[in-house]
Amino acid sequence: MNSANRTWRNWGRSVAVTPLSVERPESVEALQLSVKRAAAAGRRVKAVGAGHSFTGIAAAPDVLLQLDKLQGIIDVDRERRRVRFQAGTRLYRIPGLLSGLTLAMPNLGDIDRQSLAGAISTGTHGTGAGFGGLATQVAGLTLIQPDGGLLTVDDGDPLLPAAALGLGALGIIADVTLQCVPAFALQAQEESELLADTLAALDRRAGSTDHFEFYWFPHTDRAATKSNTRLPGSAPLHPRPPLSRWIEESLLSNSLFRATCAAGAAVPALIPPVNRAAARLLGGHGYTEASHRVFTQHRTVRFREMEYGLPADRLPAAFAAVRQLVEERAWRISFPLEVRWAAADDRWLSTAYGRDTAYIAVHRYYREDHREYFTAVEEILLAFGGRPHWGKLHSLDAASLAPRYPRFNDFLAVRNRLDPDRIFANEYLDQVLGP
Ligand SMILES: Cc1cc2nc3c(=O)[nH]c(=O)nc-3n(C[C@H](O)[C@H](O)[C@H](O)COP(=O)(O)OP(=O)(O)OC[C@H]3O[C@@H](n4cnc5c(N)ncnc54)[C@H](O)[C@@H]3O)c2cc1C
Question: SS3 helix, strand, coil % of the chain, rounded to 5?
Answer without folding.
Answer: 35, 25, 40
